[in-house]
Amino acid sequence: MGWPMNSRLKRIDLGSQSGAGLTAASLYWDVPKTGILAALELIITGNLTTAPSTPTAVGMAAAVNRVRLIANAGINLIDVSGVGYHYLFRDYIDDYSDPVADSDAKDAVASGAYNVSMIFPIAINSRDEVGLIMLQNNDTQLRLEVTKGAATDIANDFTVMTFDVRPIIYVHTVPVDPKDWPAFEYAHTITEEQTTVSGAGSVTWNWPRGNLYAQVIHGLGVGTTGSDDWTDAALRVNQSDYLMPPLPPAHFTREFYKTHGRARELGHIPLFDGLGDSGLGCYGSARDLLDSRVLTDIQSVITAGAAGTLYTIKRQLVPLPK
After folding, report:
1. What's the DSSP call for residue 283?
2. Which of 111, 125, 138, 261 is the least buried, fewest Cβ under 10 Å from its Cβ?
């Protein structure tokens, strides 16, 4: 009966760890070598004591400095910040509803309890097999790293900061007969870059080439009271061919309403969405994925209206050797 009828979905609790203190700290888990990995959930909670002064503009998302899922000691399957995840990526999971709508990540910094939980797809969505990872493989070793932000990254004057992380992985059992295994043809990666924008003017972000792009989402001006610190954005290939000419925020607002049914947050630039263009969130066809291997170069060209940080989420499919 094939893959769907010969496997069952399980959840495995990797156990809680805490990162107390006011400085940055990293927590680590080795992912058990059992089953076929489909998704990663992080329950991240904590508490801040003493009213803050000069809080960061990106709110409680700054409590998470970085999340990394590392394969074989060097390949980043996931590499994103709390800001990149909560202001950009979490809008693009499965059917484009918000899987962590109870999060405090976009709230202004305040003393008391907070919740900045996350969920990451390992397969490209909850239905399809693209991106699944066979854990029962001597050549595969996965390590999860979650780094808390320092208290000074969030606000001044905190006297106590707690940070608790409980990872839960979603795994499929492995069918007895290898003929019933899914096809392990691609790794699905979710990575983030941050670029300093010195002031108003044209900003060119060069896409790394070599893989298939599913999404490239930018943010310039994101925050608890965000602003569109940009006036237009374009997608250019091979130096002069515009797949998307310079278009204003109003265009991207329409696009976001079309695929999400809710308002685009200020600062959010949904430049390229090869999944959502089908109209079904991440459950659509792969017709609009962009194969960077056949292009000389690919560039996002954004006209900035002010200085700031350009956040960029890259979602790619990486062909695996056969």
Report:
1. G
2. 138
CATH 2.60.120.1140 fits 192-319, yes or no: no
Alpha-carbon span 55 to 110, nearest angstrom: 8
DSSP H/E element including 322 = none
CATH 2.60.120.730 location in the chain: 192-319
Per DSSP, which regions of the chain are E strands?
9-13, 17-18, 25-30, 36-49, 64-71, 75-80, 112-115, 118-121, 133-134, 142-148, 160-172, 186-197, 201-206, 212-220, 230-237, 241-247, 268-273, 290-291, 298-304, 308-319
Three-state SS at 44: strand
Residue 141 pLDDT greater than 80, yes or no: yes
Listed residue (283, 322, 259, 272) closest to 129, CA to CA: 283
Q: How high is the mean pLDDT of the chain?
A: 93
Mean pLDDT on 112-131: 95
Fold entry, domain 4-184: Adenovirus Type 2 Hexon; domain 4 (2.70.9)
DSSP secondary structure string for all residues of 180-232: GSPP--EEEEEEEEEEEE-SSEEEEEEPPPSSEEEEEEEEES-STT----EEE
* Mean pLDDT on 213-224: 97
119-128: per-residue pLDDT in tens?
A: 999 999 999 9
Cα(104)–Cα(108) distance, integer angstroms: 8
User: Which residue is listed with tokens 């950009």?
Assistant: 88
Q: What is the pTM of this model?
A: 0.95
Q: How far is CA 155 from the centre of its chain?
A: 24
Per-residue pLDDT reduced to its tens digit, 92-106: 999 999 999 999 999
